[in-house]
Structures are given as structure tokens and as C-alpha cells.
Specification:
Elements: H1 6-10, H2 68-86, H3 93-103, H4 110-121, H5 126-147, E1 157-158, E2 161-162, H6 164-168, H7 170-191, H8 197-211, H9 216-226, H10 234-244, H11 246-259, H12 264-291, H13 294-297, H14 303-306, H15 312-316, H16 318-334, H17 341-356
Antiparallel strand pairs: 1-2
Helix pairs in contact: 2-4, 2-5, 3-7, 4-5, 4-11, 4-17, 5-7, 5-11, 8-11, 9-10, 11-12, 12-16, 12-17, 16-17
Length: 359
């Protein structure tokens, strides 16, 4: 596959309208806005509290700083409980054991929490978003199970545990991923309450597009095709990551906004926010892959280097990659201007967390 012309893949495939074209990092960063995030300092553990400006009301009466740790723990616990109930242990036991092994193996639950936060930002409530939040985590888990297979990245470690195929065999691992993918859509359709059918159908369409041949699969195929090719540039790399990584993060946020009753304008602002943090997530992932150990990451470190994959550090260097991450963080936060700062606080903090995560 190394002889493929990657530009033939990149040009005609568009995941969504208003797709972010690659912008070479330009510095210094733009002037502050109400929701401007500080420059990402990768390697620094972020407290993820809002700035002083964001914690003072218009009448200058102070309000408590947003407690990001408590928010994440509370929402993750709710998501874990919902996932445990949704994918219960029932016959056939082998396939459900395999599904639950990877689905309940831990993880930060960033995607489902983004879905819930977006829903609440536009005026929705947690129960309206929870089936969609669980669905995006099921699909994310499917992508990890399949990504780790010998025919793909051939990895032995995921979330600090042996990968699914190492425990259950390749055949069951493939089927476990397939089952999670199918059940994700069933779960949204059957378990979403308090949302109009039109919004549910719209959300299902968004999710399907984000993971199909114009979404996650497109990014995965171009990623595989780019291995060992020295001519891969920034345009192709951005295409891979906007599809392989950012598309599902984008879907998570957009589904939450749709389920919460957001206007078309609100949905589109949140789409751009999510696309920015999706690309940010991958830039940070590329940096961590070459700066952290397998024990610190909970997965195999340095595998992109071994596979001769193109990465942001490989093309830009570590420092320029960090600067690009800071630019993406600022772009994401700028999309939250105009929303209630208190309701936007979780998304601001999540963007900072993604920029400063250590695994």
C-alpha cells in the first residue's frame, strides 16, 4: 500500500462542512478573549480551574471556582454505572465478557463527558445525553480493540492491561468490537428519553458519518497507507487526525448539543470547538508517545516511531508541536464566547485538560 498517492485520498474526502484546513502555526497567539485558555504547557499538570476573570460575576460578586476534579469524577462515575447496566453480563457469556473487559477497563471517559457537558451547556439535562455518551464510549472502545489487533497496530497493552485479543483471541476481539459498534446505535435509539425523534435521528446520522468511510475509517486507512512513506506532509497528517481522532470527539460534542436542544448556530460553534480539541488531542498524543514511558502512558510508548509513522513531532519538532497545541487550545476556547461562562466552565476545563494530560 506504500505506493498509494495520499493526495488522492485527502482531497475528495470531507467529513463535515467547514472542515478546518491546516494552518501552519502562527505565533504569538491572538489577543485574549473572555474564554481564552492560557498557552498549553505540556508536561505541566493543569489544575483546570477557570481564570480570575471567569470566576467573577458581572456584578463583581465572587463565585466558587469550578472544581474540575470533582466534576470529572462525578460524571465518570455516572457514565461507568450506565455502561455497566447497558452492557450487562448475559448469554452468550464469552462475547459479553470480551465487550465488558475493554469497555469497563477504565479510561478517562473524555468523550462521554464532553457529550454530557455540551448537552448541559445548551440547556439540556444529563439523562437526555447519557445514552449518546455511552454510545460514543462504546464506539471508542471498539476502535481501540480493532486498532490493537495484529493486522493493525499489533499492540499488547491498552489502559494498563493486556489488549482484548491477548485475552480472548483475535476472533472474539473482532466480534466484541463489532457488537459494541452495533449496540451503540441501538442504545441511542431505544434508551434516549425526553428528546424528540427528529433530534435522535439527526444525532444517529452524525455519529454514523463520524465513524464511517468519511470519518474514523477514512483516517485509519490513510494512516495505514502512510506508514513508511517519507513524502507525507502536514496536510495529509492533519487529514488523518481530523478523521481518525477528531471525528469521534466532534461527534461526542455535537450529539450532546443536539440532544440538549441546541440551535443550529450553537451546534456549529461547538462543532468547531470539538474539531479543535480533537486535533489538539492527537498533537498531544504524538508528543507523549516520544516523551513518556509505557508505564506512564498505560500503553506501548514509541510505537509510532517503530512503525515509521508520520507525527507532529517528526514534522515540526517537539517545541513547535507544543506551540501548535497552544494555538489549537486557544482556538477551541474562542468558540465558547457567547455561552454562559458558568455552563461553559466544564468544556473550558476539559480543553485545558486535553492540552496538559500526561497519558
Amino acid at each position: 500500500m506504500n505506493s498509494l498517492n495520499l493526495s488522492a485520498w485527502v482531497s475528495p474526502i470531507r467529513t463535515h462542512p467547514r472542515s478546518l484546513a491546516f494552518r501552519k502555526p502562527s505565533f504569538p497567539l491572538a489577543a485574549p478573549t473572555k474564554h481564552r485558555c492560557p498557552p498549553a504547557r505540556l508536561g505541566f499538570s493543569v489544575s483546570a480551574v477557570l481564570t480570575k476573570e471567569e470566576t467573577v460575576q458581572e456584578d463583581n460578586r465572587p463565585r466558587p471556582a469550578f472544581d474540575f476534579k470533582a466534576y470529572m469524577l462525578g460524571k465518570a462515575a455516572a457514565v461507568n454505572e450506565a455502561l455497566d447496566v447497558a452492557v450487562s453480563l448475559r448469554p452468550p457469556l464469552r462475547i459479553h465478557e470480551a465487550m465488558r473487559y475493554s469497555l469497563l477497563a477504565g479510561g478517562k471517559r473524555v468523550r462521554p463527558i464532553l457529550c454530557i457537558a455540551a448537552c448541559e451547556l445548551v440547556g439540556g439535562a444529563l439523562p437526555m445525553a447519557m445514552p449518546s455518551a455511552c454510545a460514543v464510549e462504546m464506539i471508542h472502545t471498539m476502535s481501540l480493540i480493532h486498532d490493537d489487533l495484529p493486522c493493525m497496530d499489533n499492540d499488547d497493552l491498552r489502559r494498563g492491561k493486556p489488549t482484548n485479543h491477548k485475552v480472548f483471541g483475535e476472533d472474539v476481539a473482532v466480534l466484541a468490537g463489532d457488537a459494541l459498534l452495533a449496540f451503540a446505535f441501538e442504545h441511542i435509539a431505544a434508551d434516549t428519553k425526553g428528546v424528540t425523534p427528529a433530534r435522535i435521528v439527526r444525532a444517529i446520522g452524525e455519529l454514523a458519518r463520524s465513524i464511517g468511510a468519511e470519518g474514523l475509517v477514512a483516517g485509519q486507512v490513510v494512516d495505514i497507507s502512510s506508514e513508511g512513506i517519507s513524502a507525507v506532509g502536514l496536510k495529509e497528517l492533519e487529514f488523518i487526525h481530523l478523521h481518525k481522532t477528531a471525528a469521534l470527539l466532534e461527534a461526542s460534542v455535537v450529539l450532546g448539543a443536539i440532544m440538549g436542544g441546541g440551535s443550529d448556530a450553537e451546534v456549529e460553534k461547538l462543532r468547531i470547538f470539538a474539531r479543535s480539541i480533537g486535533l489538539l488531542f492527537q498533537v498531544v498524543d504524538d508528543i507523549l508517545d516520544v516523551t513518556m514511558s509505557s508505564q506512564e502512558l498505560g500503553k506501548t510508548a514509541g510505537k509510532d516511531l517503530v512503525a515509521d509513522k508520520v507525527t507532529y513531532p517528526k514534522l515540526l519538532g517537539i517545541e513547535k508541536s507544543r506551540e501548535f497545541a497552544a494555538e489549537l487550545l486557544q482556538e477551541a476556547c474562542s468558540q465558547l464566547v457567547g455561552f454562559d461562562p458558568e455552563k461553559a466552565a466544564p468544556l473550558v476545563a476539559l480543553a485545558k485538560y486535553i492540552a496538559n494530560r500526561q497519558n
